[in-house]
Design a protein that fits this description.
heterodimer; A: 608 residues; mainly alpha; 3 domains; 1% strand; globular; B: 234 residues; alpha+beta; Aminopeptidase; 7-stranded mixed β-sheet; 7 strands; Acyl_CoA_acyltransferase (chain B); GNAT_dom (chain B); acyltransferase (chain B)
């Protein structure tokens, strides 16, 4: 028995090597011994133990644990100012990398300082920065998890895997940050004042580092980073307030953040001074710090054991340029959300979201938007969707109160619309797939809007209103369905899904959808001008209008907008037809070659 | 495949259309350059080391031997190899099975060594495999390919695959992937297309809805339903 392998409580170890090799020799070519559950998943996730390519624990280089790293001095608390700036920069780069979908353990928490923030207390600047970073990351993570648009996207994992993502007293990070900011600001003023002018008392102006000539530059560098960190934290807290209450304040801080980002950008020249310029390496490939030096205190492998049991992979942290670009874009995308007027109606909101997606916003921005739109399950956190829809439908009060079918329809419509809004906030690839799937729901809703009515109320005044309501509801659903199909088709262009031979088919579908939408729009208009009173006007007047008695609503603003949208649909439709004709002509002229594919024909392509 | 990466199996994206068709017709049994390319179907485990070595060398994902065994043991007739002067220079590993309500073939790994790329070898391997799948009764064939892998996209595009879906950040390097799909012709589809109000599927037919010569609601609903059924199946 091998003395090197200790026996456990209920276990004895036996050496089975010779047994296994003789059994192996018994197997003939092609025979395989496997457990009952040997299917694709098991086959794919099987790892060969002790193969460093597969077994994450077998990596022979690097520190094995956090404690080991600390003891070896990988994360000193005493840092020079240049080193501190590098740490700040690298943390920002890690955050950007993390938000782009990489594991927390390999990005933000590859920072040894963040793995134990309390330890950094002696270094006030480091401590304040770390605490605020952790608090910010926690807020971002929570927001994304709540919005729940990341699940199947596989671009963000919210689980913490035991990492210290939250800490005691993180909410006080602002106070710490303000304190150190004040100190550095004072130091900066002192520098600028110059030695010859004011008298400086020795206690309150301790230089950040040794070289007086560089002091001002470093003060600037530290200060703008602190202020950026603070502004970011503020933005996160204000945007978290429901019903858009914090949006105005958030915008102010976004402006601050953007300007500090500019300052950070301009500090690069100062910080990288003296670094050997590498003309071969493009600026993008240079490191993840402004100075270009590698930051101290980071180790990607220390959390190895916290990662999922997949083969080990190294990820590359974003370059400094990309980090700055990421935050700039994020701030601008967040600003756009903040500009959303909280008074918008449902259709305008849908339009806003559609336009917003053209900016290609990243996950956090989209999560923030979705949380704003559907906070607490209500539109903009205020109205339940059913109420918002009633306003859109313009359904008479009498019908709404008395007709069960209309009520049921409205509830159903609210559910489907909420789903649509949520889908509109996901990334475009996922969005297209989901849009395709919810078409069934919209089709069902369309059917539901045409349910046959109870004969007994026909002919009555309520009956008339019910029938007209039904037509309006049908028209609304039909238009929305057209919108969904149209979005589905258009996304295919954005996602580059269509090949040349499919264009004709796509434009044909698109044309049909546009003309359907037009048809419903026109139908709806021709029915609503013999006025159905809106619930508000009924209350005011206290009496109901009969049948087709005309109360012409003020025409001008509505008419202008209506005619505009009609013309636009017509134009789009004509464009599609134009494309179809052009493609046909090019094909007939053999300028475009459609190959014969040996396995299927155009028919199959159409079906897909 | 969750983590398969595909290299440029065929750098033929820029080749002239006519040229490609002719190459396919000749079945590339006399490959460009010296020596014939021999295509064989998988026979037994003695060939497994060659396949593993080739795939390990060309693709960056580490696969355990179990992965290979899973595919090749269960579907040996879907595994093909290309030999040149006795050496294995290309291989293809696939599977097929029931997926929801379709019988679907899936291309898992495709590799051709660098020196022999651009000769249509990969296309030939894939073509043979698809034929086997079709004859075995598959309704369709799918695979994933990285959006930047122009060679693979061209290869499959030429064979009639379309880009059915885009998968966001599918690969660990953050790149998106396309799900490529090839649908085989089925006899009963001709009937299916006549549903929904007698629409002809001729793409060049001008359709003017303003004539209101059909019931839009009915058509829209049917179209919406059939649209979504097709999408659900993809």
């Amino acid at each position: 028995m091998d003395a090197a392998v200790p026996a456990g409580d209920q276990t004895i170890w036996l050496d089975a090597s010779s047994f296994l090799s003789s059994v192996c020799n018994e197997l003939s070519v092609g025979e395989l011994v496997h457990g009952e559950n040997f299917r694709l998943f098991e086959a794919m996730s099987a790892l060969e133990i002790m193969d460093p390519k597969m077994d994450a624990g077998m990596a022979t280089t690097g520190f094995k644990t956090f404690e080991e790293a600390i003891e070896s001095g990988a994360a000193p608390i005493e840092l020079t100012i240049p080193q501190l700036v590098d740490v700040f920069d690298h943390i920002l780069a890690c955050e950007a990398t993390w938000q782009n979908g990489h594991a927390l353990a390999q990005t933000v928490f590859s920072c040894l300082y963040l793995l134990n923030v309390d330890r950094t207390a002696p270094n006030a600047l480091l401590h304040a920065f770390c605490k605020t970073t952790r608090a910010s990351c926690s807020m971002i993570r929570t927001a994304i998890a709540l919005a729940d648009i990341h699940e199947q996207e596989e671009d963000f994992i919210t689980m913490a895997y035991g990492l210290p993502v939250e800490g005691e007293g993180d909410s006080r990070c602002l106070a710490l940050l303000n304190t150190v900011e004040e100190v550095v600001a004072r130091q900066l003023r002192g520098c600028k004042g110059g030695l010859s002018t004011k008298k400086k008392s020795l206690e309150d102006a301790e230089p950040l580092q040794d070289d007086p000539a560089l002091e001002e530059g470093y003060c600037h560098a530290i200060l703008c980073r602190l202020r950026f960190r603070k502004a970011l934290y503020h933005i996160l807290t204000y945007m978290d307030k429901p019903q858009g209450r914090g949006l105005e304040m958030a915008r102010k801080h976004i402006l601050v953040a953007l300007s500090e980002l500019q300052n950070i950008r301009s500090s690069s020249a100062f910080l990288s001074f003296g670094q050997a310029p590498d003309s071969v390496v493009e600026s993008k490939e240079r490191g993840s710090t402004a100075s270009g030096r590698v930051a101290i205190g980071f180790d990607e492998c220390v959390n190895r054991r916290l990662l999922a049991p997949t083969p080990p992979r190294s990820i590359s942290i974003l370059s400094w340029e990309d980090t700055l670009a990421y935050f700039e874009k994020l701030l601008q995308d967040l600003d756009r959300i903040c500009s959303l007027p909280m008074t918008l109606g449902l259709e305008e909101i849908l339009q806003f979201v559609m336009d917003y997606q053209k900016l290609k916003p990243d996950l956090f921005a989209r999560a923030r938007l979705q949380l704003l739109l559907l906070h607490d399950g209500k539109l903009l956190g205020r109205d339940p969707l059913a109420i918002a829809l009633v306003k859109v439908f313009n359904v008479p009060q009498s019908v709404m109160a008395n007709d069960h079918q209309t009520q049921a329809f409205t509830t159903q419509a609210a559910r489907v619309t909420k789903q649509l809004l949520k889908i509109m906030c996901t990334n475009t690839a996922w969005q297209r797939r989901k849009l395709g799937r919810i078409l069934q729901d919209w089709g069902n809703l369309l059917q539901q809007s045409k349910v046959t009515r109870d004969v007994s109320i026909e002919g009555s005044q309520l009956g008339d209103e019910v029938i007209q309501t039904e037509n309006m509801l049908t028209a609304w659903v039909a238009e929305q369905t057209c919108w969904v199909v149209r979005q589905f088709l258009m996304l295919g262009f954005q996602l580059d899904l269509y090949s040349l031979s499919e264009f004709c088919m796509v434009y044909w579908y698109l044309d049909h959808v546009l003309l359907s939408a037009l048809h419903y729009k026109l139908a709806k208009e021709s029915q609503t001008t013999p006025a159905i009173d809106s619930p508000d006007s009924v209350k005011k007047k206290g009496k109901k209008k009969k049948g087709s008695a005309a109360l012409k609503q003020p025409k001008t603003p509505k008419d202008g907008k209506f005619m505009y949208s009609v013309h636009l649909l017509q134009c789009y439709s004509d464009l599609c037809k134009g494309f179809i004709w052009m493609l046909t002509a090019l094909t007939r002229d053999r300028k475009l070659l459609h190959r014969e594919t040996i396995f299927n024909t155009e028919q199959e392509v159409m079906l897909l | 495949m969750a983590e398969t990466e595909r290299r440029e199996a065929d750098g033929s994206a820029k080749e002239a259309d006519i040229g490609r068709v002719e190459e396919e017709d000749s079945k590339t049994s006399d490959g460009a350059g010296s020596g014939r390319i021999e295509y064989v179907s998988y026979k037994d485990e003695t060939q497994l080391p060659d396949i593993m070595a080739l795939i390990d060398q060309e693709l960056s994902e580490p696969y355990s031997i179990f992965t290979y065994r899973y595919f090749i043991t269960l579907w040996p007739d879907l595994c093909f190899m290309a030999f040149h002067e006795g050496k294995c220079i290309g291989t293809l590993v696939c599977k097929m099975g029931q997926h929801r309500n379709t019988f679907r073939g899936y291309i898992a790994m495709l590799v051709v060594v660098k020196q022999h790329r651009g000769k249509g070898i990969a296309t030939e391997l894939v073509t043979r495999c698809i034929q086997v799948m079709r004859d075995a009764g598959c309704d369709e064939v799918t695979l994933e390919a990285e959006v930047t892998n122009l060679g693979a996209l061209a290869l499959y595009g030429n064979l009639g695959f379309i880009r059915a879906k885009r998968l966001h950040r599918y690969y660990l390097n953050g790149f998106d992937a396309y799900r490529l799909k090839l649908l085989f012709p089925r006899p009963h589809d001709a009937n299916r297309m006549l549903l929904g109000g007698g629409y002809s599927m001729d793409p060049y037919q001008m359709h003017d809805c303003s004539k209101l010569d059909h019931d839009h609601d009915q058509v829209l609903f049917t179209k919406a339903t059939s649209f979504s059924i097709q999408v659900q199946n993809s």
